[in-house]
Amino acid sequence: MHRIPRDNSFDSTLALLREPYDFVSERRRRFGSDVFQARLLLRKTICMTGPEAAKLFYDPRRFIRHGAMPEPIRKTLLGQGGVQGLDDQEHRHRKEMFVSLMTPESIGRLGDLVADHWRAQAHRWASMGRVVLYPELHPILTRAVCTWGGVPLAETEVARRTRELVALFDAAGGVGARHLWSRLARRRAERWIEGIVEQVRAGQLSPPKQSPLHVIATHRDVNGALLPARMAAVEVLNLLRPTVAVSVFMTFAAHALHLHSECRQRLAQDEDGSADLFVQEVRRFYPFFPAVMARVREDFDWNGYRFPRGRSVMLDLYGTNHDPRTWDRPEAFRPERFRQWDKSPFNFIPQGGGEHRVTHRCPGEWITIELMKVALSFLAGGMAYDVPEQDLRIDRTRLPALPRSRFIMCNVRLRGDPDDERGGR
């Protein structure tokens, strides 16, 4: 057996917080190994990167997810008892519930709702001198996903519930007051949805039978029992939260389109599937979620390294998406590269790897792609706007990473609007 290279720091948690997207890759280069060990939150953790490591990580015979995610993430981003922390039959059964909601027709309805709300917001943007895109996307996505999900949302509640949903992903990786706000938002959001689930079960609320709210509220576990109302709320939020989080990818799409304006005409006309290529390259190129966690199920050896039972393991998502062994010139933005991509489920893993029904790969990936294409339809052709001077550098020290300016637009007009006489961008 080879000795796994070790980061000699007593604890590397602060280093991970300072460089969440580069922590693993930088040490991979330092150690000359796809595998090394560090202490994170005082726990010995094996860190891995690359497609071969991803293939290993998504082998359910080798790893489990129960208890793997650090407590701060469970208390904010994920919630307690959700599908992300389940294993084996229990996981497959719960996962099938989510996959059943991801039909092309259902995702298409969500896309149409987002387009409708985007169009309505764009009319408002036209009267504003300056629009900061990232926060403006949040109520669009909140309204759309609640309508799609069957979750009642009064107009007077939109601002409050939007703030809470955003806090679940935008503040979860923060420290101090920002992280505490995410924890408070988690408690409030779960109470909100738990009350709605109880209304459905009491017959006081009748969402459509195919709606996510109805499906989750009436879902029965492997033993035939209804999920506890709070756990059902966690799973409803596991649809609402990540849908609103697509605002991060949408903002990156606007950023990429501004820097690579040569793509605009092809995207506006969707020549040769260029929208799909562009979306996939945004998901590969930009930093979204940096890593995922698991625990070793039983002792095993891999490539000469010993993985002891119970050891925490972290897989580097961002670094794998930038691995030069897979991606030629990985730091260049080149949508055309996806014409030759081999469609491996382990070398392109912005939202996890493996097979959606079996592993812990996010089934909401299909929603992400659809909603990003809706955004591109407006950004590349459906709207005219100018991009003023601003700080477009990507802040990679925060989770999630974002352009420092959150992408500012001005002189916004909808294409085809009688007031749009400029032609603009």
Report on this structure.
There is one protein chain. The chain has 425 residues and is α+β, with helices and mostly antiparallel strands. Helix content is 47%, strand content 11%. The protein is built from 15 helices and twelve strands. The protein has helices at residues 13-18, 23-31, 51-57, 71-78, 88-100, 104-125, 133-149, 158-170, 177-201, 212-217, 229-259, 264-269, 274-285, 317-321, 365-382, and strands spanning 35-40, 43-48, 63-64, 131-132, 291-296, 300-302, 305-307, 312-316, 383-386, 394-395, 402-403, 408-414. A five-stranded mixed β-sheet has the order 1-2-8-5-3, sandwiched between helices. Helix 7 packs across helix 8 (158-170) and helix 13 (274-285) packs across helix 15 (365-382).
Helix content: 40-55%
Query: What structural class do helix, strand and pairing data support?
Result: alpha+beta
Parts with pLDDT < 50 across at least 5 consecutive residues: 420-425
Q: Give the biggest beta sheet.
A: 5 strands, mixed
Count of individual beta strands: 12
Query: What is the string of SSEs from the N terminus onward?
Result: HHEEHEHHHEHHHHHHHEEEEHHEEEE
Shape: globular
Placed side by side, the strands forming the largest sheet appear as 1-2-8-5-3
Instruction: Kindly report the average pLDDT value.
Output: 95
Write the layout of secondary structure elements.
Elements lengths: L12 H6 L4 H9 L3 E6 L2 E6 L2 H7 L5 E2 L6 H8 L9 H13 L3 H22 L5 E2 H17 L8 H13 L6 H25 L10 H6 L11 H31 L4 H6 L4 H12 L5 E6 L3 E3 L2 E3 L4 E5 H5 L43 H18 E4 L7 E2 L6 E2 L4 E7 L11
Parallel strand pairs: 2-8
Antiparallel strand pairs: 1-2, 3-5, 4-12, 5-8, 6-7, 9-12, 10-11
